[in-house]
Amino acid sequence: MNPIRNIYSSIPADIPVELIQDILTAGSFKIERIVSKGHASPEGFWYDQDQNEWVLLLKGGAGLLFEGTDDVLALKPGDYVNIPAHLKHRVEWTDPTTETVWVAVMY
């Protein structure tokens, strides 16, 4: 029997670097919990992933920018985005006043 876990548990009070934790992995399929607080991608850095990524924002707020666009996509709790493999993107900002909690599914 698997114990019940909570997506909001064990979030440290101080988050100097973005917290990324595997929740489930099975072959090339992976689910992660990501916790940010005022974090952003480094200047000039773009994610360019080999897998598709589906991201759900559960708490907080964040801004995503996709290569070739000037508009930052502002995410609020409940919003989700599917990011195809090799679509370059970056995190422009996350809420500096509260934890931003994401669930990311790589497939």
Outline:
The protein has 107 residues and is an all-beta fold. It is built from no helices and 8 strands.
If you had to describe this structure to a student in words, what would you say it looks like?
By secondary structure, the protein is mainly β. It has one domain: Sandwich (Jelly Rolls). It is about 0% helix and about 45% strand. The protein is built from no helices and eight strands. It has strands spanning about 20-25, 30-35, 55-60, 60-65, 75, 80-85, 90-95, 100-105. A five-stranded antiparallel β-sheet has the order 1-2-8-3-6, with no helix packed on it. Strands 5-4-7 form a three-stranded antiparallel β-sheet, with no helix packed on it. A hairpin with a 2-residue loop joins strand 1 and strand 2. The radius of gyration is 14 Å and the shape is globular. It starts with 18 loop residues before the first strand and ends with a strand.
Q: How many structural domains are formed by the residues?
A: 1
Assigned CATH superfamily: Jelly Rolls
Helix content: under 10%
SS element count, helices: 0
> What's the β-strand tally?
8
Gross morphology: globular
**CATH class category label:** Mainly Beta
Order of helices and strands: EEEEEEEE
Largest sheet: 5 strands, antiparallel
Q: What is the third-level CATH name, the topology?
A: Jelly Rolls
The radius of gyration computed from the alpha-carbon positions, rounded to a whole number of angstroms, is 14 Å
